[in-house]
Design a protein that fits this description.
The chain is α+β, with helices and mostly antiparallel strands. About 45% of the residues lie in helices and about 20% in strands. The chain folds into two domains: about 30-250, Serine Threonine Protein Phosphatase 5, Tetratricopeptide repeat (Alpha Horseshoe); about 280-415, Sandwich (Jelly Rolls), CATH 2.60.120.260. A hairpin with a 6-residue loop joins strand 6 (about 345-350) and strand 7 (about 360). The longest helix has about 35 residues, at about 1-35.
Length: about 425
């Protein structure tokens, strides 16, 4: 028995250190997780000391020293990033942060090596592509920057305007951006054109438009490009593009030659741009197309007022090409149903590039069956385009809340 007891006691003595060692290996993970939750320097350092082989803890401590203003220390950050990578070399995010730390420390060659490693490990990561693009731009390597930003666009097409804005700030040539940055696909050409249009870069928009010839361009692209040309008073080119567009879009349905006012009877879909009508909006007014009430064709433009508001609204407006010093006759038909207030519906002719052009028709109120409404006018010298409007002006009277409905149809413009 004594021998057995001694053997048992000896076995216990041998087991205890193994048990304690096993307990330490198990507990240090939990201790590391406990301290890492604090996310301050003491907690992170404690986590690393308890589990120094944990690559994540090393990485987080590196980020702490890089981004915390109170404990900022690039050398420590770099040291912990390197240790994290030594433990787990395939961390693309850690390589990226190491590159940023090297960059901040002025160690550009090491920063570039770390960035290239991050790129190899994250070839489908848009964040890394963006960071690489910015890195190469800052360090004067435009070609590498554009290559990374082009990959960023392909991965995040909804964010491509950010890349365009970044490169345009560097004043690179439009041809360089178009050739090297914009992916050779219609959706990217479209988005880049919209970026150029929104920033009102007319020369660059024209260059891209020429490249897009032959592509199946959507209505929205035609409209927005034509709108920019009209806003810049480049009427001849805008009109040529517009005629080509409606000739294809409404093949066999248009007059030849087309009338001065397009879609005057509202038979076609209103495109809200170009040389078509633009429909206005105002509180208390609802504009619609009516298939049941019309005097010409198959429908008219209608508007209903709710009787609770006093809106000032361009119900519909259209830019029209004209010749200078010529007489024109604008005519259309209006129908109204219990249209209240003295400020009803009227036609107005206003300048688009003509000075002091403002002619109005009579104002229609109350209840009227289809009634002809006309304006005759002469264009000023050097006048190439006018705005034809269907209007309701705001009333200054006490009884100014307009209610009722109106319909407009058969609008035409004739040169005398």
């Amino acid at each position: 028995m004594r021998i057995n007891e001694r053997l048992g006691f000896l076995l216990i003595l041998l087991t205890i250190p193994l048990y304690l060692l096993l307990l330490w290996f198990i507990s240090r993970q939990f201790l590391g997780e406990f301290y890492i939750r604090k996310m301050n320097e003491k907690g992170l350092v404690s986590a690393v000391s308890y589990d120094s082989k944990n690559a994540t803890y090393q990485y987080l401590l590196g980020r702490f020293y890089q981004h915390n203003s109170d404990a900022f220390n690039l050398d420590r950050a770099i040291s912990h990033y390197r240790e994290s990578i030594r433990l787990s070399p395939l961390q693309g995010g850690c390589w990226l942060d190491l590159s940023k730390a090297f960059q901040a420390a002025g160690r550009i060659n090491e920063a570039e090596s770390a960035m290239e490693r991050a790129l190899r490990l994250n070839q489908k990561n848009p964040t890394v592509m963006w960071e690489a693009g910015v890195f190469y731009l800052v360090n004067g390597n435009t070609d590498k920057a554009v290559k990374s930003l082009k990959e960023f666009i392909l991965l995040r097409p909804e964010k491509q305007e950010d890349a365009y804005e970044l490169l345009w700030k560097l004043q690179l040539s439009s041809n360089y951006i178009l050739t090297n940055l914009v992916p050779d696909t219609y959706p990217c050409y479209k988005r880049y054109l919209f970026y150029l249009l929104s920033s009102r870069r007319i020369k660059e928009s024209k260059e891209l438009w020429e490249m897009m010839k032959g592509l199946p361009v959507e209505d929205e692209v035609f409209i927005r490009y034509t709108d920019l040309l009209i806003s810049k008073h480049i009427y001849g080119e805008a009109e040529e593009i517009w005629k080509n567009f409606i000739g294809k879009r409404f093949s066999g349905k248009t007059e030849d030659p087309p009338p001065l006012i397009w879609n005057g009877s509202f038979e076609f879909k209103i495109l809200n741009g170009g040389f078509d009508w633009k429909i206005g909006k105002a509180k208390g007014a609802q504009v619609f197309l009516d298939d049941d009430i019309h005097v010409r064709g198959g429908r008219s433009l209608g508007i209903t007022f709710d009787g609770k508001h006093n809106p000032d609204i361009n119900i519909a407006s259209q830019v029209v090409r004209v010749l200078p010093k010529e007489r024109y006759f604008l005519r259309g038909y209006m129908r109204t149903d219990n249209l209240t207030t003295t400020n009803g519906i009227f036609f107005s002719v206003e300048d688009h590039d003509c000075k002091s052009m403002n002619k109005k028709s009579e104002v229609i109120t109350g209840k009227n069956f289809w009634r002809e409404v006309a304006v005759e006018f002469e264009t000023p010298s050097e006048c190439n385009a006018l705005s034809i409007n269907i209007r309701r002006a705001k009333s200054d009277k006490l009884d100014n809340k307009i209610g009722g409905s109106a319909w407009i149809d058969g609008i035409s413009l004739i040169k005398r």
